[in-house]
């Protein structure tokens, strides 16, 4: 292992959050880290801890087949509401999107708190403003979203057939068919996120 590889390994091991190659390079004084990252990823492949790329950021994670050994069960789980789940799915598949565009797809109004919950979870971010009347805020997913759900990029999101096979497409099809969504959109006790239940859905 050469000095650059050792430095990259140390930087990622000590990092508080995933880092892009550019961030790692700046941290190491401008070193070329591309080759070192690929070498380290190959070296850690199949081990208990792996070096993975999520979006454009690198980080160490527990091997997926060992995650169950380290997961801690917590009873004080807070749920992600149906409204927040639908909004997150729409943003992931159609980003960047505005709140009005989310509402058009869902067929119901989306409470501001719904998007706030997703932003507090670190899964979506403000991606700018749409050119047009009112210049509405637009939203996109974050690297934390990809990391939580084990996705390298948005290209890894499940397709229509996979969603239908998992029984997750029916609510969306119902919206497009014009069936009313009678679930309240603003439930303060329900508009919160908990790691344990969401880990199970990921």
Automatic annotation (TrEMBL):
Keywords: Cell cycle, Cell division, Chromosome partition, Cytoplasm. Residues 179-202 are annotated as: Disordered. It comes from the Bacteria. Coiled coil: none annotated. One of its GO terms (biological process) is cell division. Residues 180-202 have a biased composition (Acidic residues). InterPro entries: ScpB_csome_segregation, WH-like_DNA-bd_sf, WH_DNA-bd_sf. This is Segregation and condensation protein B.
